């Protein structure tokens, strides 16, 4: 078995794919009305987005009655401040809760948390 990709649900696949394209600089390798796949420049698993009409935005950090996140992305960076500024310019929001000093948690436009780490 080979992992070929990670899929994130969203109310708008194209909108979320465009955000990650700005954030990561990856290219679109598949573009359908409700499905978009980005490919990593060096190969490996892609990152895909599917439109889900019943999508419920997760809450970070989730409380007992909040929608739970089911996955998050870890993105290695060389400089947290520079990478954070880039993420915000791309459309991310810095999460209010930051659990570690050497990690920054951001939310993508659909509310999926992702971590920038050194």
Automatic annotation (TrEMBL):
Domain VOC: from-to ranges: 2-118
PROSITE patterns membership: VOC
Domain of life: Bacteria
A Pfam family per the record: Glyoxalase_6
PANTHER family attached to this UniProt entry: CONSERVED PROTEIN (PTHR35908:SF1), HYPOTHETICAL FUSION PROTEIN (PTHR35908)
Stated name of the protein: VOC domain-containing protein
């Amino acid at each position: 078995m080979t992992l070929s990709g990670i899929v994130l649900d969203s109310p708008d696949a194209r909108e979320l794919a465009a955000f990650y394209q700005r954030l990561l600089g990856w290219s679109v390798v598949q573009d359908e009305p409700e499905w978009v796949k980005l490919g990593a420049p060096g190969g490996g698993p892609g990152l895909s987005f599917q439109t889900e009409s019943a999508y419920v935005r997760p809450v970070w950090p989730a409380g007992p009655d909040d929608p739970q996140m089911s996955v998050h992305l870890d993105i290695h960076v060389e400089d947290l401040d520079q990478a954070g500024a880039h993420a915000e310019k791309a459309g991310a929001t810095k999460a209010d809760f930051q659990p570690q000093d050497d990690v920054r948690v951001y939310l993508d436009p659909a509310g999926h948390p992702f971590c920038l780490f050194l």
